[in-house]
Amino acid sequence: MGAAASAQRTLLVEKLPKCTDYTKAFEDMGGAGILGEGIDFDAFKSGVQELGFEVKDEEIQDYYRRFKVLIADDPKKVAKARVNGREFFQFLLVEATAQQAEAAEHLEKYKHMHEILGPIEAAHGYPTAHALLEHKPEVAKELWFPPDTQADDELFTARTAEAGWNPVHLLLVSGGNSTIVKAEAPPLIKSLLEKFPEFAQQRIQPELGLEKGHLPLYLALQYGWDVDTVKQILFAYEDAQWTMDVMQKNKGKAPSLKNATWARKIAVEFDAAPAVLDLLPEPKKANKKQLDAPTVHGGFNWQHEAASA
After folding, report:
1. 261 falls within a domain
2. Strands 260-261 and 282-285
3. Which of 50, 167, 235, 246 has its CA 20 to 30 A from that of 199?
4. In 119-138, which positions are buried (b, 16+ CB within 10 angstroms) versus exposed (e)?
5. Gap between the Cα atoms of 78 and 76, Å rounded
């Protein structure tokens, strides 16, 4: 969220009646009781204005959309939707929890970030995750391990203690399925990489195609992240752009242009934006005269498309 939305978040919990009066507030805004049809957009807009929130008219629909996380991708559905009681209370609970974290209160309950990186938290701009990075950053280093689902596959590689997902992995993959995550996560990804640049080097899913697993850069390219996010990852781990990775089926072989993959190849495969492609060089086998050139890495001469044309 931007500065205006962040200020609005604080107002929401403070201005609404406390605890037991939330039910009445929901009904007063047109909720027709907790089991009723819910609050439509017009009722929400009127309620926000009557409660005295300092929100511009053009911002109200975006704020209403944040209640309706699951349909946030479709403005037409948002216009017809109603905020139900469960969503209303869930929203307020996340807001109140975020306020506590921002005030550095009750942080002892946070042992990791895994559960505060989804679409619900994205709808609020990830305030709790940002607060933890400021007050208790070490929790971001706790990795998440997905369940093993392919142990019977002959190419399966058992996960090691180093193969867990860090918060950057989780956000990049989550953004592949949620536009609200993709819209709200870039500032958090930037903060995570500034605090822990090593996150950009950590790999996941060695059991799914690549012998060593997927770098965050590869995930960003596969899931269509914006050019600024790709730049942040490259700034944290420059070598990712000229890393050659052998496919699992060619395990143990030296990387070649035929048996390996690399960032630009992935970007092309997944139709990355031109601005993203411009960041990534293409490899060619280096000859003996080129081996000492600064553009040579791992025996390959890496050139950007314009330079090699």
Report:
1. yes
2. unpaired
3. 246
4. bbbbbbbbbbbbbbbeebee
5. 5
Residue 96 shares a structural domain with residue 131: no
Domain match, 99 and 141 both: no
CB 301 within 8 A of CB 285: yes
- Could you tell me if residue 96 is inside a domain? yes
Distance CA 80, CA 111 (A): 39
pLDDT at 43 over 70: yes
By the 8 A CB rule, do 213 and 253 touch? no
| Residue indicated by tokens 């060089």 | 281
Q: Residue 225: how many CB atoms within 10 A of its CB?
A: 26
Span 11-28, pLDDT tens digits: 454 555 444 466 777 777
pLDDT tens digits, one per residue of 118-171: 998 998 889 999 999 999 999 999 999 887 655 455 555 555 556 799 999 999
CB atoms within 10 A of CB 76: 8
**Domain check: are 79 and 201 in the same one?**
no
Domain that holds residue 93: 3-103
